[in-house]
Amino acid sequence: KMAAAGGAGSAAALWSEVNRCGQNGDFARALKSVNKILQISKDDVTALQCKVVCLIQNGNFKEALSVINTHTKVLTSDIIAFEKAYCEYRLNRIENALKTIQSASQQTDKLKELYGQVLYRLERYDDCLAAYRDLIRNSQDEYEEERKTNLSAVVAAQSTWEKVMPEDLGLREATYELCYNSACALIGQGKLNEAMKKLQKAEELCRQSLSEDSDVTEEDTEAELAIIHGQMAYIMQLQGRTEDALQLYNQIIKLKPTDVGLLAVIANNIITINKDQNVFDSKKKVKLTNAEGVEHKLSKKQLQAIEFNKALLAMYTNQADQCRKLSASLQSQSPEHLLPVLIQAAQLCREKQHAKAVALLQDFADQHPANAAEIKLTMAQLKIAQGSITKACMILRSIEELQHKPGMVSALVTMYSHEEDIDSAIEVFTQAIQWYQQFQARTNYSCCVFQPKSPVHLSLIREAANFKLKHGRKKEAISDLEELWKQNPKDVHTLAQLISAYSLVDPEKAKVLSKHLPSSDTMSLKVDVDALENSHGATYVRKKAGKLTGDSQQKEQGQGDVKKKKKKKKGKLPKNYDPKVTPDPERWLPMRERSYYRGRKKGKKKDQVGKGTQGSTTAGSSELDASKTASSPPTSPRPGSAAAVSATSNVIPPRHQKPAGAPATKKKQQQKKKKGAKGGW
C-alpha cells in the first residue's frame, strides 16, 4: 500500500510537470515526464494522447503515428482521429489522411479544417471550396482571416489549373496573401496587367506588415517577397519581356529561398526561356527541379510541365536515350497526352528517322481519335519537310473536322497548285462549299426561317470562282459567279466578272447581262480634283493660279503662253585656273585610266641611287644635289609664303597640262616588261 501510495504521488507530480511544460511550450521536457508516467501505467489513455501531441509538436510525425498504430485498442478512432489524420497529412500520405477523416464518427471543427487542406492537396477544388464556405459560415474565432485566405487560394487554383471563371467572393483584400491569390486568379484569366497591379499592391502590403515587426530583417523581408517577385517575373515572361523576367528570376535564386517548390518553378521557367540556347545554364538549373520534397509542393500539372521540359532538354543536349526514357515515362503516366509522343517524334526526326516518326504518330492517332487532328497536322508537316506534298494533302484531307475551315482550304489549294493538280484543288473548294450548304440546310430546318449564306460560305465561293478563272475553267467559274450575284444583285464587281466569263463562252448571254450594269451617269464619282491633288499623298501638286486682271488676260490671249526662261548658273572654276592654258582633255577620267598614268612611285630613289660600280654616281645624281640648283623651294610652305609663291610661279597645275614625256615613259615600261618576261606562254 505504501508503494502504491508512493507511485500515485510521483504520478501526480509528473502530471503537474507535464501541465507546466505544456503551458510553457517545452514539449521535449513534457515528453520525458509522459514517458515516466507510461512506465507506471503503460495503457494510460491520457498519457498516450499527451505523448502523441508532444511528438507532433516536436515534428516527430512518424513516431507519433507509430504510437497510435501500436495502441489501437486503447487509442480508438474517436479519440485520436485528428492526430492520426494530421500525422498522415504531414507525412504526405494524403489518401490515408482522407480515409481517416471520413471514418471518424464525429466531424469536429479541427477535422473539417484538416479536411479542407487534404482536399486542396488532392486537387479536388470544388469539394474544397464547399468545405471552406461551410467553415466560414459556421465558425467565429480568430482564424477567420486564415480561412478566407485558403478560400481565395482555392479559387485561384480553379482559375489557373481548371480554367474556371472565378466568382467574386466579396473578400476585402486587406492582407498581402489575399492580394497575391487574387493576382493568381487574374493570371488564370489572362488579365496580366491587372494581375501585375495586384502583385505590386501585395508587395506594398507585405513590406508594410513586416516593417511593424522589429525582429524582421531586410533579408527576411526579401525572402517573404520572393514568391511575389516570382509571380511578377512569370507575368513578364508571358508578356514577352524575357530579359526582365530572367533578371528577376536570377535575383530570387541568389537569395537562396528555403521553399523548394518556388525554386523548382523558377528554374523550370528559366529553362523555357533558354530553350535550345544556353544549354549549360539549363543543365545547372534542372538540378533545382530534382530537390527533395518538390513533388509535394507543386500541383500535378506543374510537375508534368517540369518533366516535359526535362525531356526536351535531353533532346537539345543530344541525350537521345535519356529523352526516350523520359518521354516514354510521361506517356505511360498520361497515355492520352500529346506532348510525350510529339517529343519522341521530334527526337526521331533529329536522328533522320522520319518514316519511324510518321509511323509513331499514326499509331497514336489510331489509338486516340480525339487527339488525331493535332497529330495529323504534325504528320503533314513532316511529309512537307520530306517533299511529299501529295501525301501531306491526303493526311490533311483526312481530318474531317477541319476540312471546311478557310485556313485548311487555303493550305490545300496552295499545295495542290504547287503540284499543278488543279482538279484536286477545285475538289477541295467544292467539298468545303457543300459542307456549308448542308450546314445551312440544317440551320434553316431547325430554325424554320430562311437565313442568308454566311460570310465564310460566300468568301469560299468567290475564292473558288477566282481560282477557276485564273486557271481557265470559265464554265465552272460561271456557276459560282451566278450564285454570288444571286445573293447580292447590286455587286457590280461580281457582275463584271460574270460578263467577262460569259464573253468567252456565250457572247449573247454577256450582252444580256451587260444591260444590268449601271449607267455611266450613276457611276460617275463626285471627286474634288483640287483636294485630291493637294492631299498629303499626292506625287504631283498643281500650283494654284492667281487671279488675273483684265489687261493681263488680254495680253495672254494675244501673245499666247510664253515659257519663263531659267537663268543658267555659272560654273565654279578652280582657284588656280589659268585661261591661257588649255585644260587637260583627260581631266574627267580617273587617274588610272589616263594615258600618262605611270602607277605608284614607290622605290623611285632606290632605282636611281646605287646603280653601277661601288662609289660611282648615276647621270641624274646632280639633279638630286640641292646645292647645284639655283633656287630650291622648301618641301612645305612656310606660314605666309604660300600666296607669294603662287603669285610668282609660272608652273602649270597638273590638272590643266599633260606632263611632258609621258608617252615615252610608257614605252620604256612596256620594254622593261618584255625583257623581264621569261618562260611565259
Automatic annotation (TrEMBL):
All residue ranges annotated as the Signal recognition particle SRP72 subunit RNA-binding domain in the record: 543-599
Keyword Coiled coil belongs to the record: yes
Keywords assigned by UniProt, alphabetized: Coiled coil, Cytoplasm, Endoplasmic reticulum, Repeat, Ribonucleoprotein, Signal recognition particle, TPR repeat
Cleaved signal peptide residues: none
Coiled coil regions, renumbered to chain: 94-149
Compositional bias annotation for Basic and acidic residues: 575-596
Gene Ontology terms, MF aspect: 7S RNA binding; ribosome binding
Start-end of Basic residues biased regions: 563-573, 665-681
Repeat positions for TPR: 226-259
GO BP: any one term: SRP-dependent cotranslational protein targeting to membrane
Pfam family name, one: SRP_TPR_like
UniProt-annotated location(s): Cytoplasm; Endoplasmic reticulum
Region (Disordered): 542-681
InterPro entries: Signal_recog_part_SRP72_RNA-bd (IPR013699), SRP72 (IPR026270), SRP72_TPR-like (IPR031545), TPR-like_helical_dom_sf (IPR011990), TPR_rpt (IPR019734)
PANTHER family in alphabetical order: SIGNAL RECOGNITION PARTICLE 72, SIGNAL RECOGNITION PARTICLE SUBUNIT SRP72
Family: Belongs to the SRP72 family.
Stated name of the protein: Signal recognition particle subunit SRP72
Organism from which the protein derives: Alca torda
